[in-house]
Amino acid sequence: MIRLTINGKTHEVDVDSNTPLLWAIREQVGLTGTKYGCGVAQCGACTVHIDGLPIRSCSIPARVVAGRKITTIEGLASGNTLHKVQQAWIDHEVPQCGYCQSGMIMAAAALLKEKPKPTDADIDEAMTNICRCGTFQEVRAAIHAAAKAA
Amino acid sequence: MILNPKISRRSFIAGTAAVGGGLALGLQLPFGPTVVRAADGSPEIGVWVVIRPDDTVVIRVVRSEMGQGTITGLAQLVAEELECDWSKVVTEYPTPGESVKRKRAWGDFSTGGSRGIRTSHEYVRKGGAAARMMLVQAAANQWGVPASECAAANSIVTHGPSMRRVSYGKVAEAAARLQPPKDVKLKDPKEWKVIGKPMKRLDTRDKVNGKQVYGFDLKLPGMLNAAIKECPVFGGKVKSFDVARVASLKGVRKVVQVGDSAVAVVADTWWQAKTALEQLPVVWDEGPNAKVSSASIAEILKAGLDAEQAFVGNQAGNAKQALAGAAKKIEAVYAYPFQNHVCMEPMNATARYTADKCEVWVPTQDGEASFAAVLAASGLPADKCEVYKINLGGGFGRRGAFQDYVTQAILIAKQMPGTPVKLLWSREEDMVQGRYHPVMQCKLVGGFDAANNLTGLHMRLSGQSILAAVRPAILEQQKGRDPLTFQGVADGGEHSIGYSFPNLLVDHAMRNTHVPPGFWRGVNINQNAVFIECFMDELAEAAGQDPVEFRRKYMAKYPRNLAVLNAVAEGIGWSKPAPAGTFRGVAQMKAFNSYVAAACEISVQGGNKVKVHRIVAATDCGYAVNPAQIERQVSGSFVYGLSALFMQECTVKDGRIQQENFNTYQSMRIAQMPKVETIIVEGGGDVWGGIGEPTICVAAPAVLNAFYKATGKRIRTVPLKNHGIELV
Ligand code: FES
Ligand code: FES
Predict the structure, then answer these.
(1) Which terminal residue of chain B has fewer beta carbons within 10 Å of its beta carbon, N or C?
(2) Chain B: nearest CA to A95, how far in angstroms?
(3) What is the model's pLDDT at position B17?
(4) What is the pLDDT of residues B307-334, one digit of tens each?
């Protein structure tokens, strides 16, 4: 049993020592907004925040982050108020299939926390998520819009 | 922990607990002899529209949403004629089983070939118009006035003379009892108010808050999870596997053989299933295909380039004679590799089987193809089968004609009757069990007379036929020929060539491999566009002419191809020099009845680092239903197309695919994304064009042509990583 603190709630989960955080979140805690795309830290679909930093949850064992503050896409909004990145994503109609977008949004939210007014170069460096639908043009526009929304 | 199924509103039908333990759509309830009701009891006004008492307009969509925006576009088409309040529109998927029961009331479910809108626009608009007429008639009947004195707008029927008004929700019951009109007239496109507008997608919100349920996310009470491994050598079989080695691992419930070629572990969680499967010793009978490699396949294709026998796809005049008498000839050989779709969400399906019912929940591009797979694998009759379509995390052609994962899920579930089993493929399984972009080589020979006029062109394709593997009946009708091979260079139809040459021969030496081919977004236009559009630049150079000017000479009979070519030439500023250090290329094609062209500006550092700065892309799809979504499909097409050009090849060694994940099969990131400017040309006409696929094919040749201008190097084989060239 390990204790995971996700979106402000504590969960006791029964996983063995190698179970990645991604699968503990999806299968034990039951939050499926965080996606599996590769399992090898390439695609970013599984991005969550750990103490505010973007982490690829497929490639970190759940036990390692026991007790740390974990935020998933489901916990990004405050109550009914969407995070400004989510709002920008709606305004710019970023998602196509949407499968990569939880990870994309978590990466963007973390970027804006670190750099409230990111340049294109900052975006290029921080946003390494794969999107097979190819939403990058809208992702970039939405990040800039979210930065302006302050 | 298993939660209750939480299924999106659109696929409410999938909530088996919702109404009467199952499907209630279309149920004939006693209180309205001819009224067909949706699951919540609201009346159908024809098969495409349900109006709820609170005025919610439910529009039925049977094409699958996989990101391309089709549910929004199709809803716009219905809403335009229905004259409903767009803010009250929701959509839902009828199920394939219900469609079968109702004699295919909704027509074709297949969502491929960029067909969603272009092949159903007419009947869905008519569905909207018929529903409007019935609602107006019902209101007129209620007021005792002629329907001709009433008008509908914004979900309200108004009687002009008396200014009485009634909302759709209030007359829906009465409307549903009327006979649908036979004579339905559609609006003139000039009157459109919803079609042609950048209406917001109907499915965005749940995609930014984690609520959207994909096949991967499905939860059913008592559900178990399965991981699978199929023989990595296509055509190979399971010889033996040692269940005892994993049976006692935590969470493992069952280890099963699936058909004759795969093994699956079923466990409480998928992670447990996957890790147990990795530890399961499996012995394969790999068969003779284990000797095949990329090199051996390439040899076979190479021989086809000069083979006697070939199927003719397009012929004008006598190309061979013209070439024999040419004053000058140029020749080039191109090649295009196997590529995987790599949908962001790997393949999956959930099945529950009992002797009385087989149900499958699946992200599918073709509900009816899934249904057929359920029938075949379950052995049950149609009235005991059902498919619930779940949102797709990408499709790109992998999830339509091929339902292998559905078959597998049922074969597993049959071994555990009553228990829902969710089969998820790992990314590794997804990469090595693809239905790959066909492998193709192409030899092109062009001949000129002494005045540098092109006198003949022979384009010899050698490689795989998709239809031979997937629709062999078509080949039988065609005496062995695969007409699809000639997409983009055909002599007519939705993929016809956009040039007239005095003497032309396009033919195909069919060389099939054991690697299963599939419909990869754009299908055969991708390689054919590289072959013909790069060679057009080679011909232009041989003739000492500008590539755009050279093309125009042969395009007089193709005004719509020419219009998009001209649009991108003007957009990129072709008549003026490119900005310092940048180089330009163009390409054009007709595909899926749309006309597409791209012009790009690139720079190359150190001879191999390519930056694509800007792409101007023009699309003439006849009618632009939702320009905002067209722009997104077009810009996204360059991500798909440039990833394929620069990074993607599935190689074969010992009969199996070598690339197992994104680390060896890369896909573009945002830093590599060019600025894409989309020009929409509305050519109108009776034939509508598609959007989801056409633009992909012009990405690669435009960039390859620019690369030549920048470096003087003609690259004729894809991907560019094999030449040490990277996209930066
Ligand atoms: S699933 Fe974690 S990076 Fe792809
Ligand atoms: S929106 Fe489909 S993968 Fe990104």
Answers:
(1) N
(2) 7
(3) 31
(4) 999 999 999 999 999 999 999 999 999 9
Residue B597 CB burial class (10 angstroms; 0-12, 13-18, ≥19): buried
Q: Please state the pTM of the whole predicted model.
A: 0.95
Measured between CB atoms, does B595 come within 8 Å of chain A? Answer: no
A27 in the same domain as A92: no
Q: What is the dihedral of CA A121, A126, A130, A132, to 10 degrees?
A: -40
B83: left (phi over 0), alpha (psi -120 to 50) or beta: left
The pLDDT of B234-254, averaged and rounded, is: 98
* Residue A150: predicted pLDDT: 67
Q: What is the pLDDT of residue B329?
A: 98
Phi, psi of B382 (to 5 degrees): -55, -35
Does B215-287+347-424 carry CATH code 3.80.10.10?
A: no
Residue of chain A minimizing CA distance to B395: A97
pLDDT of residue B533: 98
Of B344, B426, B638, the CB nearest to A39: B426
Q: How high is the ipTM of this complex?
A: 0.98
Pocket test for ligand 2, best of A96, A128, A137 (most atoms within 8 A of CB): A96
**Structural domain boundaries enclosing A49:** 2-75
CATH of B305-339+436-727, one of 3.30.479.30, 3.30.365.10, 2.70.70.10, 3.30.1370.10: 3.30.365.10
Distance from CA of A97 to the nearest CA of B (A): 3
User: How many other β-carbons are positioned within 10 Å of the β-carbon of residue B3?
Assistant: 11
Of A42, A45, A124, the CB nearest to B670: A124
Average pLDDT over residues B24-45: 68
Distance (Å, whole) CA B51 – CA A95: 28
How many structural domains does chain A have?
Answer: 2
* CATH number, domain B21-204: 3.30.365.10
- Residues 39-68 on A with a CB inside 8 Å of B are 39-40, 42-43, 45
Listed in sequence order, the residues at least 6 apart from B192 whose beta carbon sits closer than 8 Å to its beta carbon are B80
Cβ contact, residue pair A30, B637, below 8 Å = no
- Picking from A34, A35, A127, the nearest residue to B670 by CB comes out as A127
Q: What is the mean pLDDT of chain B?
A: 95
